[in-house]
Specification:
This protein is mainly beta. It has two domains: 106 residues, Pnp Oxidase, Chain A, CATH 2.30.110.10; 118 residues, Thrombin, subunit H (Beta Barrel). The chain has three helices and 17 strands. The strands form four sheets. A six-stranded antiparallel β-barrel has the order 1-4-5-10-9-8.
Length: 250
Amino acid sequence: MLTDHVIPGDKVDLTEVKSEQKITKAGIIERKTYSTRVYDVLSEDEIKVNMPFVDGHIVLLEVGDDYDLCFYSGKGLYQCYARITDRYKSNNMYVLTMELTSPLRKFQRREYYRLNCILNMKCREVGDKELQELEEIGGNDVRFVNTDLTLEDGVIVDISGGGAKFISDKQFERESKILFVFSLNLNGKQTEFSVIGKIILSDQIEGRNGEYKNHVQFVNIKDRDREGIIRYIFEEERKIRRKASGIEEK
C-alpha cells in the first residue's frame, strides 16, 4: 500500500512520540513536528526521508525514536507510525531510514477533511480592482490586499484545506470574494493566515435574527497556507481521537 500512495519527493511531517514534551498553560501537550521530504520508498514498510532542517540547521534525530508520520501525497493525506532505524550522509544528503510500525491509512475521508471548530476571524469583501491587481502580481499574494480598511468580525465553525464555514452579522452576495484573516496554533505558535475566499452560500441562521452562516471556498490559496491548515486539522483531529479512545499521550 505504501508504494501505491507515497513517492520520493512527497512532503512528510514527522511528529515526535517520545516522552520529551511541553505542556502549555492550558494543559495541552505539544510535540515537535519536523517537515521534510521522502527520499526513497524501499518497500511496503521501509522508507528513507531527508533529515529535517530548522532555521537552516540540520536536526539530528535519534536512531530508535518513534514518530507519527503524515504524508502529503498526490493521492491525499496519509498517516502512520514509524521508527528511525538508521541515519547517515550520502552524496551530501543527510538521510534517515525509517521502519513503519503501523499500517498506512488514509487520513482524509474526502478531498479535504472538515474540522468542526470555534476560531475567531476577521473579513471584508474584496473589490474587483483589488482582485485584478492580485491576478497581475501572481494571483495569490494576499500581502498586497489593503488590510487598513475595516474588517468585520466573524467566527469560523468548520474549516478544511479547501474552504470554511463562518458566522457573521453580515450577509454576503453569492460569488463575492472576501479577505479571510485568522490564526491557527501550529507547532506551539500562533500563525496568521490571510486568504481570499469565494462565497458559495450565505443564509440567515434560523431563529437567530441578524446572524448568517456563510460557506466559503478558498481561491488561489498558496500551497504553504493550505498545508498549514491541513496540518492544524490533522493535529486537532488526532487529539479528538485520542480523547475519545481514552488514550493518554506519554
